[in-house]
Amino acid sequence: MVALFASLLLESVGRGLVQAKTRAALAEARSGALLFEARLATEEDATAEVQAAVLKELVSDLSARGAQGAVVAPVGRNNTLQFGAELRDVPTALRERLAELPGTVYAFTDLPIGQGREPGMVVGSSLTVPALGEYQLFQLFPLTAEQDTLELVTRTVAAAGLLLVGLLGLITGLVTRQVVAPVRAAASTAERLAAGRLDERLRVRGEDEIARLGSTFNSMAEALQSQIQQLEDLSRVQRRFVSDVSHELRTPLTTVRMAADVLYDDRAEFPPGTARAAELLQAELDRFESLLVDLLEISRHDAGAAELDASAVDLVPLLGRVVAAAEPLAERKGSRLDLDVPPAPVVAEVEPLRVERVLRNLVVNAVEHSEGRPVDIRLSATVEAVEVTVRDRGVGLQPGQAGMVFTRFWRGDPSRARTTGGTGLGLAIALEDVRLHGGWLQAAGAPGEGAVFRMTLPRRAGRTIPNTPLEAPRSRT
Asked: In whole angstroms, what separates CA 451 from the centre of its chain?
């Protein structure tokens, strides 16, 4: 913007200087032409030598009046008189135009000044002198003074522009320090808050908008810290309660289990109603014991007490045992379990009990939701990881449910009756077990197209998987 305004100013000043010089030169040229005609008119009866002397004197006088030089050329004759200039300094186009349109004409050109050439203008006038004939008078006016003035203005404008730019830079720096720096500090503090440093606060100075922003930010941070602390306390109390209750229930459950086992073993001696009650008691105790075991396991994960006891295990027979154990349930559901494993052993450093529990949860969950359709179970491996994919073709998952299936006690269809005694903690425990191995457990699906669960584990304990080594899970039509 400074450069634009400077160029417009210089253009305006230059145009004004040229216009002023043009008016002055034209006025001087007309005055000189009138003087020339008047003097020649008084000498019309003089001899040729006297007239020549008068012409030389007039040309010299015209040069002294302001023109750099003057040239007098009689029309049709060759006795040209010149002083301070030569006829070749006059543009040919100007001489031709003056011959076609007698009067006063001018043109801009470069004039010889000193050892070089400088901008200037040439004014031509037509003269008619009785008894002497027609003359062309050319007066040369340099634009050196105007050019010097324009250069001075240019230097002044450049200096003022640089000063203005420097002042704008200083103002911008001050504004940046007053506005941008606090915003940057707020962003840095917010990042530290997001990283878990809840004691971070902004330093508030003054009473302007930035200060109000800092105060509001600090109030928000305090409220957030308070809410997070309350949630952490509540979560800690909840985990402690679940852990304590689970442990406290072990003793009475053991006693009840012993009595239930006695009743169940002697149920043949009881009346039919009592025998059925003994069977129901045994079944519900099995379910209750399974829930208690799951609660204890999830409590260990919450407390960070779960440890990985890894060893080299061939996953092919391990997965075969899981499928064989799920065959009776699949037969009752009318489903078929299709197992696809590599012909060679697939060895990985894992804890077999935890991996078998994860796979059992995935296969049983797929059978429960398969609605009598086949369930595909596939084992694949790379150099870095092993992967087990369990795919069913049942009811599938609604949009947004893929991330909720691992939530504790979550059920996609609360109205659906339990048929296998699930605790609602199986997938949550499976997720924690997979994370303990340093792997991933993912889910995907679509309504009516079934669901697919994928377990990915590193082949060596303690290693991390840099990226997805195998095909991402997706629903299958």
From this structure: 36
Cα distance between residue 350 and residue 433, in whole Å: 10
**Which is higher by pLDDT, 66 or 205?**
205
Stretch 396-423: mean pLDDT: 65
Residues 334 and 332: their CA atoms lie apart, in Å, by 6
CB 143 within 8 A of CB 21: yes
26-40, 48-62, 204-218, 416-430: segment of lowest average pLDDT: 416-430
Burial group, residue 291, by CB count within 10 angstroms (0-12, 13-18, 19+): middle
Spatial separation of the C-alpha atoms in residues 123 and 107, rounded to whole Å = 7
Burial of 166 (0-12, 13-18, 19+ CB in 10 A): exposed
- Averaged confidence pLDDT in the chain: 79
Single-letter residue type at 132: L
pLDDT category of residue 379 using cuts at 50, 70 and 90: very high
- C-beta separation of 284 from 260 below 8 A: no
C-alpha separations of 135 from 44, 93, 98, 109, 351 in Å:
14, 17, 11, 22, 120
Q: Which residues contact 456 (CB under 8 A, 6 or more apart)?
A: 385, 386, 387, 434, 439, 440, 441, 442, 465, 468, 469, 470
What are the structural domain ranges in the chain? 2-151, 231-302, 311-458
- The answer, as to whether pTM is greater than 0.85, is no
**What architecture is the 231-302 domain classified under in CATH?**
Orthogonal Bundle (1.10)
Place of tokens 């009990």: 353
In the predicted model, what is the mean pLDDT of residues 473-477?
A: 38
Fold of the domain built from segment(s) 311-458: Heat Shock Protein 90 (3.30.565)
CB 105 within 8 A of CB 97: yes
Distance between CA 475 and CA 402 in Å, rounded?
11
Upper half-sphere CA count for residue 26 (Cβ side, 13 Å): 12
- Edge-first strand listing for the sheet containing 104-113: 81-83, 69-74, 133-142, 116-129, 104-113
User: Which distant-in-sequence residues (6+ apart) come within 8 Å of 147 by Cβ?
Assistant: 118, 119
pLDDT of 50 strictly over 80: no
Name the fold adopted by 2-151. Answer: Beta-Lactamase (3.30.450)
Say if CB 392 and CB 373 are below 8 A apart: yes
Higher pLDDT, residue 470 or 300:
300
448: left (phi over 0), alpha (psi -120 to 50) or beta: left
